[in-house]
Amino acid sequence: MTEWIDRRVAIWASVAAVGGIVLLLGAKLIDEPDATAVDLLLELLDNVPMVLTSVGLAILFQITRRQHEDQMTLIHDLEAARVHGQRWRSEARTFLNGLGAAMDMQFSRWSLTRAERERTVRSQARTLYSKAGLSGRAALSAFFLEDLLAPADGIDPAILADERDEEHPNTRSIQ
């Protein structure tokens, strides 16, 4: 987000505060030309809170306007991200449905019944988890997906892969 009170606003606020005080003291001198320094000091003490409050309100309006602009930008960006995410999910769903259909077609060519298909898949999955040193489907998914995720800034992906390989010595990195 942008800085809400920039240097220009701070300078204008200071000029407005000093200008307001000078104007009020000048009006006092015009109204009472024989006013003493004590009278002017008391007038200053009387008017400074009003001037500073006025300047503060102007600054608050400026901050509110900038926050509103930032909020509108964030809402626009969020909506764009939602649309992008929906499109990505739709495309991914299409690919996954196509993969599932291709697998079903191949199982049909092999003349496997639904029960045989499920039993075969579960048996092969258990064997795969065991050989890979992984606890199950979630760990297997995480193993492959973590290489697709963007690495944290300043962290070498090779170091992450080495750490993962140390945790699961029966597996090799797919890089």
- Beta percentage is under 5%
Content-based structural category: mainly alpha
Helix fraction by DSSP (H/I, runs of at least 4): over 70%
Secondary structure tally, helices: 5
Provide the low-confidence segments as ranges.
none
Distance between the amino and carboxyl termini:
37 Å
Record field, number of beta strands: 0
The whole-angstrom Rg is: 35 Å
- Shape, please? rod-shaped
Largest sheet: none
How would you state the average pLDDT, rounded?
80
Order of helices and strands: HHHHH
Give a verbal description of the structure:
The structure is a single chain. By secondary structure, this protein is mostly helical. The protein contains five helices and no strands. It has helices at residues 7-31, 37-109, 114-132, 137-145, 157-167. The model has no long low-confidence stretch (mean pLDDT 80).
Question: TL;DR of this structure?
Answer:
By secondary structure, this protein is mostly helical. Helices cover 78% and strands 0% of the residues.
Task: Please write out the topology.
Layout: H1 7-31, H2 37-109, H3 114-132, H4 137-145, H5 157-167
Helix pairs in contact: 1-2
